WD repeat and FYVE domain-containing protein 1 (Goodea atripinnis), 77 residues
Amino acid sequence: WLDSDSCQKCEQPFFWNIKQMWDTKTLGLRQHHCRKCGKAVCGKCSSKRSTFPIMGFEFPVRVCDACFDTIKEEELV
């Protein structure tokens, strides 16, 4: 999983990134990880869930919205 102080999709700061929160006058967000690409993303950018058996995820897990659109039907079987 990739480390980041802000969402790697929308660049909003995570809650521990005090400097960026202060500079942008925004509240920090919770960090999540896409189970397909491994990027650190916020909840808004990872609102989708999918099974991903090829990676060992038989039950729906969080994936970023961009990866969700690229999952092929054969990867779900």
Summary: DSSP finds two helices and four strands in the chain.
